[in-house]
Structures are given as structure tokens and as C-alpha cells.
Write a structure and sequence with these properties.
The protein is α/β, with parallel strands linked by helices. It contains eleven helices and 16 strands. The structure holds flavin mononucleotide (FMN). The site of flavin mononucleotide has 28 residues, from strand 6.
Length: 300
Amino acid sequence: MLEIELCKVKMRNPSMLASGIMGTTASSLNWAIRSGAGAVVTKSFGLEPNEGYPNPTTIEVTGGILNAIGLSNPGVDEFSKELEKVDKSVPIIASIVGASAEEFSQIAGRIEPLVDLIELNVSCPHAQEGLGASIGQDPLFTSEIVKSVKKTVNCPVIVKLTPNVTDIVEIAVSSQMAGCDALTLINSLGPGMRIDIDTANPILYNKSGGLSGPAIKPIALRCIYDVYEAVKVPIIGVGGITDYRDAVEAIFAGAKCVQIGTAIMYKGMDVFKDISSGLEKFMFKKEYESIDEMVGKAHS
Ligand SMILES: Cc1cc2nc3c(=O)[nH]c(=O)nc-3n(C[C@H](O)[C@H](O)[C@H](O)COP(=O)(O)O)c2cc1C
């Protein structure tokens, strides 16, 4: 009863590994799959290798972490070799990043044979100029990318949105109009900062970074809730989901499935099995027969 279909792709349960956390190699993706993830999303990768920022790239804050990794990745050619080694027993989602519609489409075309779905990361709050949230803050630019990628590939295309906008619903609606098949909400919040009080310097090399973890869950839920009322495409909820209760909240707000990121740093890969077994018991107790029955329940 945990099974769902996302854009006609079957998942054994509604939990997914979120992009950027342990999704950089075939062995870490396979580890998440063995640990019970219903699907896995890769770390975002681009056309060319990107070193990202020097350390420190992450720092703990109350209720989560700040990260400014700077989208470090080995580029599509190297990443393709990793993807060839990934266990295909669950859906594999490639998260891709680029600076133009042309670049996104080139990567999408090259990676499509190795994956089931593609997630467009137009929402990183700490990427180098041109690669990050600035794209996802512009509905026209985002739509141009979606249209171009949809012309290039046949697999479902997901757009991952940033909460760092005045009106996330506007970007969600325009992405849907451009033809996306699903939306992932939300990427990390901010950017935010911490200062070392001994040296009086910002702690992160990049000075600021995206906030993730339990602290952003209320923002994620609000984004999912508002966007659910305005779109027809399925929503993948992400942001602070740490246990089955958080997953239920996201599903009731309107998410069809959920991604788990920072919680892996707190709980390890066991988090996937914990969420699935908690969800199953909750559904039994409340007499829900399917996840679909629960999606958007907070709106009725
Ligand atoms: C260390 C780290 C790296 C991340 N890298 C990416 C990335 O490469 N691409 C992306 O779309 N999101 C990335 N994210 C954002 C997560 O996928 C997720 O949207 C965000 O962390 C909120 O979920 P969480 O609170 O469960 O971590 C990253 C997050 C963290 C903490």
C-alpha cells in the first residue's frame, strides 16, 4: 500500500534520496536503494566538471545545516560512468544544472538513456553566477529551459523550485505551462550565514549557504500547500523531512512523495526504512489504503 506512480513510473514507497546528499557515486546511490529508498536523485551535475567551493562548505545551525558546496560535480561524462553502475531496481532521477536552456538540453539528452526521470535544478541558493536560484527566480527563463528540455527528451521532466522568491506559485504555474511533468519543492532556503566569534569571519568559505533540515519544514509545507492549489502536476515534497510524521504532513499538504536530505546526516540511511514503516503503521491505524488517498488531504 506504500506503492505510488510518479509520472507513470512505479515506486515501491514514496521516499526518495534528495539531490546532493550521498548521491555523488554509484556506491552511495546503491546504498540508499539497499536501505529502502523508493527512488534516488543524483547530486546535481553539469556539462563540465566543477570543483565547487573550498572548505568549509557546511556548518551546523539550530534546526539544520547551512551548505555552500557550490555544485561541485565531475560533469556529465564522468557521472554517466557512475550511473551505468547504479542498481536499476528503483527509479533513478538525474539532477542536472546548467547556465542556459541549450546546456540543460544537451545534458538531458546525454543522460536520458541512463535514468528514468530528470530533475532540473534551477534553484541552488549558493551556486556560481548564472547556475543557481537566479534562474528559478525568473519564470520566463525557467519556462524556456523546461520547453527546451521537453523537446529533447521523452522521459518525465521535474523542475525543482526555490523558496527564495516572492511568489513560488507563479513559478510553479509557469513551469507547468511550459510542460514540466512534476515539481520538486523546495531547494534549500536563504542563503544564510554564521560568523566565527573568535576570528570575526563568516564561517563558510562562500560566506553564505543554503539552509536545510527541520528548520525549513514549515516553509516547505507552505510552499507545497500553496502550489498544490494551483497546479495539476504531481509535487515532490522536500525540506526538513526527518520522520514519518513529517512525510505525512508533506503528503497532506499536497506532495505525492517526499525526498530526504539532511535527515540522513542525523539518522543515517536507516531513515528510509523508518519512514516507510512509520507510514505503513500510520496508514493502517487511520485506515488509508493508499498514499494517493492521503495526497492533499489538508485541503479538504
Ligand atoms: C549538502 C547538501 C548538498 C545539496 N546539493 C544539492 C544539489 O546538488 N542539487 C539540488 O537540487 N539540491 C541540493 N541540495 C538541496 C536538497 O536536495 C534539499 O532540497 C534541501 O536540503 C532541503 O531538504 P532537507 O531539509 O531534507 O535537506 C543539497 C542540500 C545539502 C544539505
